[in-house]
Write a structure and sequence with these properties.
The chain has 473 residues and is of the alpha/beta class. The protein has 16 helices and 12 strands. The chain has helices spanning 27-37, 58-72, 87-100, 117-128, 140-143, 149-155, 171-181, 195-201, 215-226, 230-249, 252-262, 282-294, 342-351, 380-403, 430-450, 455-461; strands spanning 10-13, 79-81, 104-108, 134-138, 161-166, 186-189, 205-208, 316-322, 330-338, 361-365, 368-373, 415-422. The longest helix is centred in the C-terminal third of the chain and has 24 residues, at 380-403.
Length: 473
Amino acid sequence: MSKKPDWFKGIFPALVTPFTEDDQVDEEAFRALIRHVLPHVDGVVPAGTTGEFVYLTEAEKRLVIDIAVDEVGGRVPVVAGTGCASTRDTIALTQYAGDAGATAALVVAPFYLKPTFNEVYEHYEAVNEVGLPIILYNIPQCAGTHFKWWTAEGLAYLDNVVGIKDSSGDMPFLMALFEKVKGQIGIFCGHDEIVMAALAAGADGAILASANLIPDLWQKIYAAVKEGDLATAQDGQAKIQKLVRIVIRKGTTQAVKEGLRMMGLEMGNSRHPIMPGGAFEREDREELRIQLENLGKVEVSSLGFRVSSVGDFTLRVGEGFSGPPFFELAHVDLLLGVREGPVGRAIARALGEPRPSHELRIISERPRTLLVPTVTVRTRKQAGHVYDDAARGINLAIEASVEDGSLPQGALGDLAMIANVFVHPAAANRKRIEFNNYKAMRAAIRKAIESRPTLEELLNEKEAARHPFRYAP
């Protein structure tokens, strides 16, 4: 007999929890976020993983649930995150969520001390007695407890279990769920990188961190799959794949909050130990901005990139860093200015000085760009990596920067750049050298144009500063 409710389908954002500067839950910002996503979603999930539930006090979890229920006002289901490390606390919070008006509870597997499967089962058996519909939540990469198909199958028979969210990214496990419990309970995907595949295989919907940023695009993918238009769904997933990979693999909570900030929704920062520039690294932030631009979520001009003339370009400085893999990491230090200024004069002087094993090379004339190798070039292979592969990536970055308006098309002949380029002597993967130097140079150009990082950014991120090759606290 099916226990799957009619409402448990579609796209549900796993809402971030906004914080004020003095580290309080920001009710006004949270309501604004809900209003932002509501036209495009089938439900919302407060106090989940993306909502930093493990960093919230019990009072704050209750507050977040109350705000969500009130702001939604019955327009879509509210699935409240109520999972706690202990059975006692999970029961208490689930009871509270039901009394507050939540539609269901998302209950993560008990975590940290890694209970046995029997203990996991008895945990859910006790929570089942509350009477609120339960969505099982499998996220082993965080909880440390991975459901097995037989565990999930047994739990699905509990009276009030109506669905499961699987965030493991484990497709064989998901396929086993379809075999064992499909039709009996709802099955949701919680791993953003495989949503289209999960939907096509039979998932009823998805609960996603990235749905804070792009709920409308996820809704289009969901609709395309339901209509049998897999080509459109595949194309949609491909277009957002880089964005969701950054969000899921690089500090989800901070990544989503910074993405929302770029879109005009201030959510504050994550709570420590998560911090700006930490798990969500600065090179990933630059890439996230570009992806949001490509998807039409952020206007280039609104971020201060688009310029019409060289203006006060006497001397500007930018820096970019990109990877992986380790030996193909790229680091670019950039000087940008007018040809008649100090940058142009430095280029002319440098070209007149012999630099054995550090030969300089002009790799572009518009703008005039000098490549300076950081590491001593000792072999023909190294020379190819620096002067061919890295140079190709840098020129691609220049082309992209002209196309998006970061570099002014009409003033290219008046500009000069010096790119100090690092290529590891042990590098081997030529395409990755090219790609990483493209990303590093593009970030360096943008930072130079915007005069970033600002003093405020540096102070905000100083605690997360790390040398990329060596950690020395």
